[in-house]
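FORM 7B: Structural annotation worksheet

SECTION A. Query
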Amino acid sequence: MNEIKTPKKPMMFYYGVFLAVIILFNAIVLGKKISNYRSAE
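SECTION B. Predicted structure
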């Protein structure tokens, strides 16, 4: 557990998860806005 490895893989992993969360959040928000516009019409 004390071995020091290159932090490239963990950083890229967390970065990918971070991007995935943002994309999902934006998709949900945009989806709600689109549904609201459609229902308004």
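SECTION C. Observations
Helices lie at 8-40. The CA atoms of residues 5 and 21 lie 26 Å apart.

SECTION D. Sign-off
Analyst initials: ____
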